[in-house]
Protein: Acetyl-coenzyme A synthetase
Organism: Rhodophyticola porphyridii
Amino acid sequence: MPKDTPDLLPDAHIDAARYEEMYAASVNDPEGFWGEHGKRIDWIKPYTKVKDTSFAHDNVHVKWFEDGTLNVSANCIDRHLESRGDQTAIIFEPDDPNDEAKHITYEQLAKEVGTFANVLKECGVRKGDRVVLYLPMIPEAAYAMLACARIGAIHSIVFAGFSPDALAARVNGSGAKLVITADGAPRGGRVTELKDNVNKALLHNVLGTRCLVVKRTGDQVAWVGGRDIWYDDLAERVSSDCPPEEMNAEDPLFILYTSGSTGQPKGVVHTTGGYLVYASMTHEYTFDYKDGDVFWCTADVGWVTGHSYIVYGPLANGATTLMFEGVPTYPDAGRFWQVCEKHKVNQFYTAPTAIRALMGKGTGFVEKYDLSSLKLLGTVGEPINPEAWNWYNENVGKGTCPIVDTWWQTETGGHMMTPLPGAHTLKPGAAQKPFFGVQPLVLDPTSGEVVEGNGVEGVLVIADSWPGQMRTVYGDHDRFVQTYFSDYKGYYFSGDGCRRDADGDYWITGRVDDVINVSGHRMGTAEVESALVAHETVSEAAVVGYPHPVKGQGIYCYVTLMNDETPSDELKKTLSDWVRREIGPIAKPDVIQWAPGLPKTRSGKIMRRILRKIAENDFDSLGDTSTLADPSVVDELIENREKG
Ligand code: WTA
């Protein structure tokens, strides 16, 4: 435990009394509460219906503000022009610190997005069409998102670290008309050839998907005539004025693929009205954002955190948001702090894995920079361990910046549980309190009964809908119902476990399904398994997470080879590279252990619980192995355990 925790922020939007009052209102009268707070954004036609939602297993549906109309890009741009046209909307900090940063005002943003929207139209994109973005962290990524929103197209961003195969699956899965990419993506001093990856991904494309290319590096790229278009060529010809499309509150805004417990990523669908209300409100209250503040979320727009807290939440609030193209350790481990000093960042939001990585490099890199502009720090993506929390608090926040530990998910659109910096005395490592409208419950994992009282642990479910909730799995509503509303009927099941302590504060204990969290990136172990068994030498594979000092969790693979294959270190490397190529660098295995046999029940189900314990080096609590078809495989695996 730290010596102290930072004091609450004075003059915050939400103090303790106001939190209690607003929280009570939000759960006692959701219609009244959200009916009022829905007005924080601009509507073309105001809503009269606020909430129509049901978590009943046979009738799951989620609709908010359903008869209202609006446009998200008008909310993020046009409505600010009169009062803050000259204010910086986006600060772009490039990968190379010697290249110049850009300050894009709201006025300029309006022109850029208008132009981009007209370019999309020129490419034949219409309302309701899907557009895949596969881009570096450059302002054009934000322009493209907002341009889609402006004309009512649905964007689906694929993180630029994903492989051509993963990209192809997402292009096909969403039936995308267009992929927007760049020639290359500089990151950490190296360049990822994005256009090359798109070429590979579109090789077998039967949808007639076209490719719009933004110039970033100026590198030579292989071109397919008739399919590929330079952004600049069209941008020169079109007007910068594009009126916003009037969208219904429940029209989809974006699809974002995310990992679950099966091999196939799910297309999480978020819609227009509820999402924007929720993203903007959480951005303002959780970070205590005030006019004129510079807000920096270090995520990539390829993840939900980038959607909600680099682009939509901040811009809807008229904020100045920082987009950083690089990585925390390039050119050295002081980069984050150098950027904080340079742009006088007020709120800084990052992942525990980044903090742990920087912690390992010593305090010298932090001490070099003036961090006095910082008022608040945040974390997201995984539980934060006390050492990392203390380091962040003492060295970055200098003991004076509250740290908001925000628990949420791609599916939730915005923060679900977090301390509010003016209301809640912090507990390092705890997500603490539900945001307005969020009703967390702890269930007994076996009986599914609600566990009442404090000092309890179980699985975390949410009892009722909130406006930022995902609406469906793209093209597969049954899967939505199956995944989130079937294990515990009547509730939204988060997939996380949690503890409610003696004071009623919440602590997230980690996933209870086969999803792991590697460097804050969410990954289904089944995805890695399907990549492994797709290799000709592999007959069977089981993948689990294990504690990793920097990544949070590492990827531990048990691999059974085909009969005629000989295990070797070389083959391990081949398989590791193979997974990296199939999914992307973030999925590269940390450990591969040869497994002549896997522990299975008599019905053939792999007992992952046991594999997890072995990978964790925890042999004393293997539990009952007597139900295994062949208990001796366990001894064999223990004997040959690989060090992570
Ligand atoms: C985990 C990221 C503990 C959790 C926004 C969740 C966290 C998954 C926290 C969602 C936190 C996220 N403390 N665990 N503050 N934030 N998680 O969809 O397991 O990429 O279910 O969304 O990350 O990951 P996703």
Remarks:
- The two ends are 27 Å apart (CA to CA).
- The chain has a mean pLDDT of 96.
- Residues 258, 303-305, 380-383, 405-410, 431, 494-496, 508, 511, 517, 522 surround WTA (CB under 6 Å).
- DSSP finds 19 helices and 30 strands in the chain.
